[in-house]
Amino acid sequence: MDQQLAIETNAAPKPFNLLDEAFWEEILEKGTKIHLNSGQYLFHEGEKKTIIYFVISGRLRALKNTGKGQMILGDIGIGEPVGEFALFTGEPRMASVIAIRKSIVLKITQEEYLNLVTKKPELATTMTSFVINRQRRNTFERRKSSPPKTVALVKMDQSLDLNTWIPGMMEYSEKEGSSVHVHLENKNSSDQGEEFFSSLEAKPGTQILICGRENMTWTQQCLLYADLVIVATHFDSDPRLRPIERELNLYSFGILNKKTYLLLLHEGRAETAINTRKWYEGRSFHMHIHLRRNHKGDSKRFCRIITNKATGIVLGGGGAKGYAHLGALKAMSERGLEVDFIGGASAGAIYGMTINYMQFKPEKMQEIIKDSVARKLTSNDLSLPVISMMSGKKIKKFLKETFLDTRIEDLWINSFCVTTNYNTAKLETHRKGPIWKTILASISVPGIFPPVVLNKNLHIDGSVMDTLPIEPMYDYPVENIIAISLSNLQEAEIDFEETPSSWKLLWDKVTRRNKYQIPGFYSIVENSLNLNSMNKQGNISDQASHYWPMDLNQYNFLDDSKWEEIQEQGYIQASKYLDAIPEEDRFWEK
Asked: Which of 574, 585, 582, 580 lies closest to 313, judged by CA?
């Protein structure tokens, strides 16, 4: 085996841990090594070949032809098999696979595979188990992507000194075992050969390559070998597009483009990020990340994000039951579980955005809650019932006073909320825009509150389409998603033949006969909102790594008077869920 190939093959973890080192070496010798350049196809959708491949180095991407173009299904990293179904079934390839950077794959024909099985029968069992387990993966497990091996960190300005931010990354990496290694360009500028980049495959963990305009040859090679591109700049610098961004064409999109993040660097004393949207002009990137100097929380979050080990929290809708989210987040915080992304619908949007805005400080949250309860935001707000029963003016005023001009993209932790676009009849995810207005739209229950105008369209409560929006969280590099549902609908038969009139219900209540056990107006509205999204989601527990349905049926949709009790219930129930997780699965403790 030549030296370069030895470096690359040593980098590849053995597929299936049950294979011993000697047998893996034999597989490497029996198979054929195929070198792929960026943009070269390994195979095309519809081909009939009984061949399996293993990724030894580099990164591949699976593509599906939709009739309107190529859809990206996901990336395939080092050590992963490719095309195993065709090996067993002989059916045509279900997708095309292309190299998105220089890669080496090991080709094993069906004949070679059978010969290997003859020598080591347990290989067949191992392969079969792998295929079955892959098929059994739930929705969330199928959507998880391989972490990047190499990251090109491109300095937007030559004067930017990243050395003051790097120690925070390295400190977290060493303590938490994230295995993030930084390679400064001044140390590597004289060693830009292919051998150096190939050797990175053999190093454990994620390799960050610092590059910039000082040495464009080095920078271009970093981009060629990178799985992820991060463009770094100081937040307070000039937001105009730089020459290096144009020259490297960093923000173009296509089937070969790597994910691009924008890293916005702040001084450690920064309290808030103001006007983040200035960095969106002229740029198209997958996500921005705020990173404060010497801020341990930010450094840890950055490392988790770039290694695809982030944790996302999705909070469901449910009116006043949303106070339970605060208790649940308190239970997580007490156990050291840190949040990297947070999103929600309706009540989940309110409490997710607010606790993020308050930087997860419980005392500030309590102040806001007490203020909102004292104002009785859902009382004495009746309107002429032309488009809604309530005017929504009190809630609007409260949200404006609380969030001022802060936008979603200004929050330290990336967040989103969902609304239902009334004009297009589609669910919309908001990761940018004024916090107060997007929250107001997300909680605008049809018939109770008026629609909100966003981008020249009417928007109503996000729960109409999806009361627990897990799907948008897949856009982030998460390893764990915790979804908290407040919509725990229960079956209950009634003992009357016809729905009683309002007068009969009033008399039944006055006389305390309790003959008619029927939900009230707001409960019917709440449950009606949930029926569509619950039906659409099917088995929702498969969509997240941890699904927590809260039992809060005893509380009313708009009753704020029991907020402390609801919050405590959220804390108690979330604590039970957390404590029931087996010790080996408590990812936040690892």
From this structure: 574
- Find the helix packing angle between 563-580 and 323-334, rounded to 10°: 40
Phi-psi region of 78 (alpha: psi -120 to 50; beta: other; left: phi over 0): beta
**Residue range 532-554: average pLDDT?**
78
Report residue 486 as tokens: 């407040």
If one compares 191 and 430, the residue with the highest pLDDT of the two is 430
Residues 275-322 pLDDT 10s: 999 999 999 999 999 999 989 899 999 999 999 999 999 999 988 999
Tally Cβ neighbours within 10 Å of residue 262.
Answer: 22
In a 3-state reduction of DSSP, which class is residue 56?
strand
Dihedral angle, C-alpha 94, 100, 106, 107, nearest 10 °: 40
Strands 51-57, 81-82: pairing kind:
antiparallel
- Quick one: what percent of the chain has pLDDT higher than 70? 85
Asked if pLDDT for residue 444 goes beyond 60, the answer is yes
DSSP string, 234-301: ETTS--SPPHHHHHTTTT--STTPPEEEEEEEE-TT------GGGGTTT---SEEEEEETT-HHHHHH
Taking the C-alpha atoms of residue 165 and residue 238, their distance in angstroms, rounded to an integer, is 20
Quote the Cα angle for 260-258-189, to 5°. 80
Tell me which amino acid residue 267 is: E
* pLDDT at residue number 540: 76
d(CA 460, CA 426): 11
- Go through the chain and tell me how many residues it has: 590
Strands (E), 348-477: 414-421, 426-430, 452-454, 457-461
Distance from C-alpha of 394 to C-alpha of 382, rounded to nearest angstrom? 10
